[in-house]
Automatic annotation (TrEMBL):
<dbReference type="InterPro" id="IPR047153">
    <property type="entry name" value="TRIM45/56/19-like"/>
</dbReference>
<keyword id="KW-0863">Zinc-finger</keyword>
<protein>
    <recommendedName>
        <fullName>B box-type domain-containing protein</fullName>
    </recommendedName>
</protein>
<dbReference type="GO" id="GO:0008270">
    <property type="term" value="F:zinc ion binding"/>
</dbReference>
<keyword id="KW-0862">Zinc</keyword>
<feature type="domain" description="B box-type">
    <location>
        <begin position="44"/>
        <end position="86"/>
    </location>
</feature>
<dbReference type="Pfam" id="PF00643">
    <property type="entry name" value="zf-B_box"/>
</dbReference>
<dbReference type="GO" id="GO:0005654">
    <property type="term" value="C:nucleoplasm"/>
</dbReference>
<dbReference type="InterPro" id="IPR000315">
    <property type="entry name" value="Znf_B-box"/>
</dbReference>
<keyword id="KW-0479">Metal-binding</keyword>
<dbReference type="GO" id="GO:0061630">
    <property type="term" value="F:ubiquitin protein ligase activity"/>
</dbReference>
Length: 240
C-alpha cells in the first residue's frame, strides 16, 4: 500500500487506488501518497469540519464563502444563508477553470508563431543591411559616410529592439506554459474546498491569458532595407 484515502482512512495499493477513483461515492475522495505523510494534517483540515470533528465538509455557504458540514447547516449562524452542495458548487468552479484553461490554451501556440515572426524579420534585417549600406557609401563623400554610420546605428538599434521583443515573447511563452501546467495540475489534484478557495485565482490568470490572445505585432519599419530606401536615408540621388 502506497496511498492513503484521507476520507476513508484506508491504505491502498496502486490497483485499489484506481478502483477508488472510479467509485461513484469515492471518486472525489482525497488521496495522499504515503511519502507525503507530512501533508496529511493540512489536508484533513480541507476534508473535515474544524468545528464538528470527523464530519466531512459536504455543504458550501455562499453567503459566508465557507465550506461547512451538515451539522453546521442547522447552526443559527448559517440560518437564512445561501447554501449549496459542496460537490455541486465545486463543479461550477471546475467548469469555469476548465473553460478558462481551454481559452488560454489557444494563446500559447500564437506566442510561438509571433516569436518566430520576430526571428524571421531579425534574420532578414541583419543578413544584408551592412553589405548593402557599404556598397552604396563607397562613392559618397565624408558627410554621406557619416550619415551611413548613423544609419547603421539606427538599424542595429532596431535589431536590438527585436531581440528584446524575442526575449520578452520567450519569457511570456514560458510564463503562460507555467500557468497552464499549474492550472491543469490544480484541476486534477485539488479537493472541492481547495477548488472553491483558490479556483478564482486560476480563472483570473487564465482569462488574462485569453484576453491577451498572444498578440505581439513586430514594428512595420523592421526588415532589410532596399537600395532606394538607403539612398533616401543617406540623402543622396547621385548614383542609382
Amino acid at each position: 500500500a502506497v496511498w492513503k484515502c484521507i476520507n476513508c482512512e484506508d491504505y491502498l495499493c496502486e490497483a485499489c487506488k484506481e478502483s477508488h477513483k472510479l467509485g461513484r461515492i469515492t471518486r472525489k475522495h482525497r488521496l495522499l501518497h504515503i511519502s507525503e505523510k507530512e501533508k496529511e494534517t493540512s489536508v484533513l483540515k480541507e476534508v473535515f469540519c474544524p468545528i464538528h470533528e470527523k464530519k466531512e465538509l459536504e455543504m458550501y455557504c455562499v453567503t459566508d464563502c465557507k465550506s461547512i458540514c451538515v451539522l453546521c447547516v442547522a447552526d443559527a449562524s448559517h440560518r437564512g444563508h445561501e447554501l449549496e452542495s459542496l460537490n455541486e458548487y465545486a463543479e461550477k468552479i471546475r467548469y469555469k477553470v476548465g473553460s478558462s484553461l481551454s481559452s488560454a490554451d489557444s494563446v500559447y501556440p500564437k506566442i510561438g508563431d509571433n516569436m518566430e515572426n520576430v526571428r524571421t524579420i531579425l534574420n532578414s534585417q541583419l543578413s544584408g543591411s551592412d553589405d548593402l549600406i557599404d556598397s552604396v557609401m563607397k562613392n559618397a563623400i565624408a558627410q554621406i559616410k557619416l550619415n551611413a554610420a548613423n544609419l547603421k546605428a539606427t538599424e542595429k538599434g532596431k535589431a536590438e529592439i527585436l531581440r528584446k521583443r524575442e526575449r520578452d515573447l520567450k519569457q511570456r511563452q514560458e510564463d503562460v506554459k507555467s500557468k497552464l501546467l499549474a492550472s491543469r495540475r490544480f484541476l486534477e489534484t485539488c479537493t472541492d474546498a481547495e477548488l472553491i478557495e483558490k479556483g478564482q485565482r486560476f480563472i483570473e490568470d487564465l482569462d488574462a491569458i485569453s484576453l491577451s490572445n498572444g498578440k505581439s505585432e513586430p514594428d512595420e519599419s523592421s526588415g532589410q532595407l532596399t537600395r532606394n530606401e538607403i539612398n533616401q536615408k543617406l540623402g543622396m540621388n547621385l548614383f542609382i
